Amino acid sequence: MTYLPRLPNDLIKQTQEALKLREGTIEFRYRSNELFDPGLDTGILMQVLSGQNLLRLERDRNFNLHFFHSSLGTGTRVATVGLDPLKGSLALRIKLIWSLDNIGLQVSDADDPRRSISQMGEPSERRFRVGDHGSVIEIGGEGLDVMEYRTSVKGRTTLEPTALEFWTDTIRATEILLKGTSTEGYIFENVTTNVAVVMLATGFETYCKKRFLELELEGINADYLSLVSNFLSIREREANQLKAFEGEAAGEQISPVHKLVKDRRVDFGNWDDCKKAYNKGYGIRFGEDLGVPPTHLEEIQRLIEHRDRVVHVSPMLPRVSKGDVPPRR
């Protein structure tokens, strides 16, 4: 849950809105008689939740101040400073900085800015996810390596790996596969290469689908009407049909955009559908906006096409023509 002691509701809402931004800065004055109390254990000074985004400021028993920032797109990062040089300060001025690339923490004596310490962030061994009803779930920790996690309640998945975590696991599994050896010779290398292509292309499809929905959970709304005009038929776009579709989404407790994806109106395994969905939904162009070279995009497309050939023809064929594969529907 959000924890901002003695802060008015309007400022809490402003802080939550700021946390939805891809980059931002929060600066405030903090005063507490307990901040430098050696008898206190680890404690949370403040915590802000906004959708699936989390910001937490925590002091540990060794007088270290930790700034955690977690989102579905970046994972959990932490910036840490030691408070010993600031002992004796009556109040602190704390600045929290985050962007897609990094986070930073700056702490100074509110009455003497010359006494100041700062640190940039790094990936955190402690990972945080926002669960149902504003709960905060901690995964892993110092010296712990969690391979995968999933939780479900009454058959409904309530927590699963993020798109980024899923893709990282896909790369890791592919690397393990390609390290295998066999006495079969070339045919083994050919089969493992084909299986690796299937894993990577399917992993890319799953990543794009999960990430598309995660953006909405992070507070970035897709252009629903643009998606409707590009992925629903003329008949389905009629007022009564569209209203029924939106009613079904409400009944399933998901957004209409989520239902478009859930009902496979968008096929992220189809290169053209995938590009169009991101472009029409979020205004993202893979090449221009993400800085991916055209040669890389062409290679991704070739790998997806090869994946389809391997699946529909044979995992042992080194090469087949495009005409051998039925089109995706």
Order of helices and strands: HEEEEEEEEEEEEEHHHHHHHH
Instruction: Give unreliable regions as ranges.
Output: 320-326
The counted number of beta strands is 13
| Shape label | globular
Tally of discrete structural domains: 2
- The percentage helix is 25-40%
End-to-end distance, in Å? 44 Å
Helical segment tally?
9
Share of residues in strands: 15-25%
- Find the structural class using helix and strand composition: alpha+beta
The residue-averaged pLDDT reads: 88
Note the topology:
Elements: H1 9-19, E1 24-30, E2 43-50, E3 53-59, E4 64-71, E5 75-82, E6 92-98, E7 103-109, E8 112-120, E9 122-123, E10 127-130, E11 136-139, E12 151-153, E13 156-159, H2 163-178, H3 186-217, H4 224-231, H5 239-251, H6 256-262, H7 271-282, H8 286-290, H9 294-312
Antiparallel strand pairs: 1-6, 2-3, 3-4, 4-5, 5-9, 6-7, 7-8, 10-11, 12-13
Helix pairs in contact: 2-3, 3-9, 4-7
Describe the overall structure.
- The protein is 37% helix and 24% strand.
- The longest helix is centred in the middle third of the chain and has 32 residues, at 186-217.
- Helix 3 crosses helix 9 (294-312).
- It folds into two domains: 9-129, Jelly Rolls; 161-324, no CATH class.
- The chain has 329 residues and is an alpha+beta fold.
- Strands 2-3-4-5-9 form a five-stranded antiparallel β-sheet, covered by helices on one side.
- The chain starts with 8 loop residues before the first helix and ends in a 17-residue tail after the last helix.
- Mean pLDDT is 88; it is low at 320-326.
